[in-house]
């Protein structure tokens, strides 16, 4: 029998909340399966909440209060846990940040920027100030720290397998000084060479293609259906409708087909990094490089 994992409720608001949930459940003599019966959630989901690893959705909190007779305790505390989990992330990104920790595979497209977990501090600072020019230095530092805390998604060997499609303009139109841009692109290449992340570059002369409207991310899981997330400057939308996710996934397949193969894409990134390092601006297109 697996050893029961204790919960240290002093480490954070979510773990305090989760420990109380376990105490109330066991006080009522209920198993994980018994408590989630009649809800739309599974026992592994509830177990993660008890260990402070997932946020409890409002409908599940109401279900727990009803079954445990806790007079709205868990519903009232949902907002506290949500705020505690926010950290330096935008409110609309909180659920996505939790989901990516459980993802088995991540597929991403960005037409204008390097994906957040691959961004280094100078790049993050430029992106943050472009969207929030009046932020204090403390707020900017917090957002840089929050974004860098997600670097494991691409840099850790135990991270989800990732497939990234980037528009060529990400390489050709730098938003930071040349030396910093060289470091940034070299970092992407270094991560890709570890073979957990596969990059593809969509040439800027590729014409009309899917997902011209903005950033898109797909995530697949071992214990839940796949989801799609799309984001604008000040908002994001999580799509979990199965038929819609499948439709988006097919479009992503067409996008990958229009992009350069992985190895030429990686060499293009490395060449752009070298050009910036040598004081040259990599103006030629990917198609010219392939000629």
Question: What can you tell me about this protein's structure?
Answer:
- With 291 residues, this protein is an alpha/beta fold.
- It has 2 domains: 13-86, lambda repressor-like DNA-binding domains (434 Repressor (Amino-terminal Domain)); 95-290, Endonuclease, Chain A.
- Helices cover 49% and strands 13% of the residues.
- The chain contains 14 helices and 6 strands.
- Strands 3-2-1-4-5-6 form a 6-stranded mixed β-sheet.
- A hairpin with a 4-residue loop joins β5 (227-231) and β6 (236-239).
- α1 (13-27) runs antiparallel to α5 (73-86), α4 packs antiparallel against α5 and α11 runs antiparallel to α13 (262-277).
- The longest helix has 17 residues, at 242-258.
- The radius of gyration is 22 Å and the shape is elongated.
- It starts with 12 loop residues before the first helix and ends with a helix.
- The model has no long low-confidence stretch (mean pLDDT 85).
């Amino acid at each position: 029998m697996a050893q029961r994992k204790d919960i240290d409720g002093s480490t954070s608001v979510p773990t305090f909340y989760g420990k109380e949930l376990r105490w109330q459940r066991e006080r009522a003599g209920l198993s994980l399966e018994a408590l989630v019966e009649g809800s739309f959630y599974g026992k592994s989901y509830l177990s993660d909440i008890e260990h402070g690893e997932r946020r409890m959705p409002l409908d599940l909190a109401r279900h727990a209060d009803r079954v445990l007779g806790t007079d709205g305790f868990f519903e009232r505390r949902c907002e506290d846990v949500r705020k505690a989990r926010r950290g330096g992330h935008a409110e609309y990104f909180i659920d996505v940040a939790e989901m990516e920790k459980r993802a088995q595979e991540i597929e991403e497209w960005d037409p204008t920027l390097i994906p957040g977990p691959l961004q280094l501090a100078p790049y993050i600072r430029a992106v943050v100030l472009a969207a929030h020019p009046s932020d204090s230095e403390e707020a900017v530092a917090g957002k840089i720290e929050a974004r860098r805390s997600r670097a494991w998604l691409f840099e850790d060997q135990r991270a989800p397998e990732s497939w990234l499609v980037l528009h060529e303009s990400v390489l050709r139109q730098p938003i930071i000084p040349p030396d910093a841009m060289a470091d940034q692109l070299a970092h992407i290449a270094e991560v890709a060479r570890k073979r957990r992340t596969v990059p593809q570059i969509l040439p800027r002369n590729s014409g009309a293609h899917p997902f011209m409207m903005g950033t898109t991310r797909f995530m697949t899981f071992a214990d839940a259906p796949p989801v799609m997330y799309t984001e604008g400057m000040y908002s994001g939308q999580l799509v979990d409708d199965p038929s819609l996710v499948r439709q988006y996934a097919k479009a992503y397949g067409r996008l990958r087909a229009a992009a350069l193969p992985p190895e030429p894409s990686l060499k293009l990134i490395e060449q752009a990094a070298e050009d910036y390092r040598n004081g040259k601006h990599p103006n030629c297109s990917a198609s010219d490089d392939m000629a």
